[in-house]
Structure formats: structure tokens, C-alpha cells
Backbone:
């Protein structure tokens, strides 16, 4: 996993437009938002899935980079004053604080487009595979994915949600892109097994929910210097969270259930991948 993490940093650095290229301020903001650290969970899932299914790292680079770029775009826009209004991300000022709100909006827009360009320009997969990957990424970040989840999140401020409603929101906002990260690796490997694809989709969604629950817990228990963002932001904004609905102990138990669901789905896929199992455990055990 360390090798995958180092690889994706090199790929992202090489493929993002250089900061010296016009318009310089936009390209600096794009690079700042993508290369400023992060867990890189999504590209790690893409690499781990693809390698387990026999894909080369070269065939996975574009999809792994694209899913991280989409994630970075979503963070830039989520942090804007009109959305979550955050000033700290990954331990540094958010994009709109560092570059101004207008440039941050443009950087997010450009990053979203750039992600699709990365996959479309991939020379290591067949056109049919590229088409599948483009469709997976589009669905994950549209109204049936992250954008839809963010809309539900905004609508939920100040309300008490049921557990199914909360999970529906986070299945879109967080789970959709994590699920896509897994399925992008499978598509790059040209996986045709219905059983494997369905099981991997369930694995990805469960990992996504486990990851979100842990995020909610860290918003209460974590330290801003460790988690890299403002602690207590969700409670201050009156957002529905898993600890708010289930209590801290209940949220921890629910995260464990999601981890077990992910591991069961991985077993059902008949794919022997310890890295994917480790990433499911990491989603619940991480400290940042």
C-alpha cells in the first residue's frame, strides 16, 4: 500500500498542469488542492482492486488519479462559504481561503473536467473499458452520487434524520465515490464476473459508510492538528451525524458492522486481496 501511495503522488504531480502554465493562479490552486496531502484511500482502492484482478499498474494510473482529482474537487467546493464554510483542510487553509472564492470555484470546476480527461486519454485500456470508467465516474459525482448527497446534507441541517435517511445521504455523498474507486479498478482489469462486480460494489459502499461513521466520530474525539480540519464543525452546524443519532458507542458499533459487511462482501467476490481487507479495517481504525 505504501508503494501505491507513493506511485499516485508521482502520477498526480506529473499529470496536473504545471503551476507555471497560464492561467498560473488557477493551476496553482488546482495543484494546491490535490497535492496538499490526504489519505489517498480512493486511489489505493483502485490500485488494490485492479491488481487483485490482474491489471497492470500502468492500466490503473489514470483511473486512480481521476478518482482522487474528483475527490479533491468535491472538497474544494464543499469547503466554500455557500456550502460547509470551512477554513482548514488537510492541515492547511482551504482553497478559497488561500486563493479567493472565485478561483476556488474555478479550480473545482477545472479539476472535475480534468478527471474525465485523464480517463479519456488513457492509452492502456480498450475504448470499451474507458467508456465504462467514464460512466462510473460520472454517476459517482452527479445527482445520484456526491452532488446529490451534498444536496441532501444541506437540506438536513437542523433536522433529526432516521438511520435509513442518514445512510441514504452518506451512501451518495461518501459511498458513491468510494464504490466507484473499487469498480474503476475492476473496469481497468476488464473484469466480467457478475458475482465479483456485485460483491465489490457492496464492499465499496460498506467501506464508504464505515469511513463516514469514523469521520463523524473523529469530529467529536479527534484533534484538529491530527485530523487536519476543524474539530466540532458538524455539531456547530447542526448537521445530522451517526454519533448524534446513535451515540458514540452506537456509532462505533455501527462502524464495526459496516466493516464486517465489507469483509463479507469481499469474501463473496472470491477475490483474495489482503490489501482490500486491510483498507476496510483502516476505514474504521484510522485516527485521522
Residues:
Amino acid at each position: 500500500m505504501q508503494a501505491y501511495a507513493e506511485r499516485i503522488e508521482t502520477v498526480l504531480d506529473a499529470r496536473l498542469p504545471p503551476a507555471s502554465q497560464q492561467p498560473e493562479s488557477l493551476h496553482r490552486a488546482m495543484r494546491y488542492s490535490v497535492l496538499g496531502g490526504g489519505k489517498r484511500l480512493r486511489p489505493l482502492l483502485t490500485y488494490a482492486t485492479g491488481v487483485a484482478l490482474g491489471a497492470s499498474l500502468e492500466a490503473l494510473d489514470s483511473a486512480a488519479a481521476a478518482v482522487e482529482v474528483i475527490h479533491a474537487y468535491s472538497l474544494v467546493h464543499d469547503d466554500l462559504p455557500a456550502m460547509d464554510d470551512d477554513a482548514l483542510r488537510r492541515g492547511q487553509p482551504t482553497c478559497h481561503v488561500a486563493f479567493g472564492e472565485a478561483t476556488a470555484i474555478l479550480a473545482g470546476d477545472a479539476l472535475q473536467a480534468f478527471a474525465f480527461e485523464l480517463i479519456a486519454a488513457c492509452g492502456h485500456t480498450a475504448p470499451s473499458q474507458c467508456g465504462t470508467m467514464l460512466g462510473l465516474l460520472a454517476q459517482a459525482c452527479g445527482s445520484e452520487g456526491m452532488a446529490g448527497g451534498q444536496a441532501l446534507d444541506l437540506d438536513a441541517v437542523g433536522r433529526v434524520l432516521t438511520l435509513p435517511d442518514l445512510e441514504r445521504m452518506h451512501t451518495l455523498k461518501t459511498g458513491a465515490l468510494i464504490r466507484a474507486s473499487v469498480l474503476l479498478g475492476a473496469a481497468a482489469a476488464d473484469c466480467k464476473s457478475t458475482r465479483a462486480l456485485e460483491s465489490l460494489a457492496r464492499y465499496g459502499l460498506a467501506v464508504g459508510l464505515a469511513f463516514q461513521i469514523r469521520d463523524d466520530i473523529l469530529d467529536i474525539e479527534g484533534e484538529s492538528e491530527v485530523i487536519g480540519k476543524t474539530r466540532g464543525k458538524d455539531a456547530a452546524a447542526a448537521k445530522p451525524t451517526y454519533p448524534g443519532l446513535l451515540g458514540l458507542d452506537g456509532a462505533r458499533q455501527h462502524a464495526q458492522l459496516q466493516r464486517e459487511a465489507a469483509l463479507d462482501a469481499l469474501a463473496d467476490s472470491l477475490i483474495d486481496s489482503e490489501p482490500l481487507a486491510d483498507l476496510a479495517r483502516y476505514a474504521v481504525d484510522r485516527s485521522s
Q: What stands out?
A: The chain has a mean pLDDT of 95. The CA atoms of residues 159 and 240 lie 7 Å apart. The first strand starts at residue 88 and ends at 89.
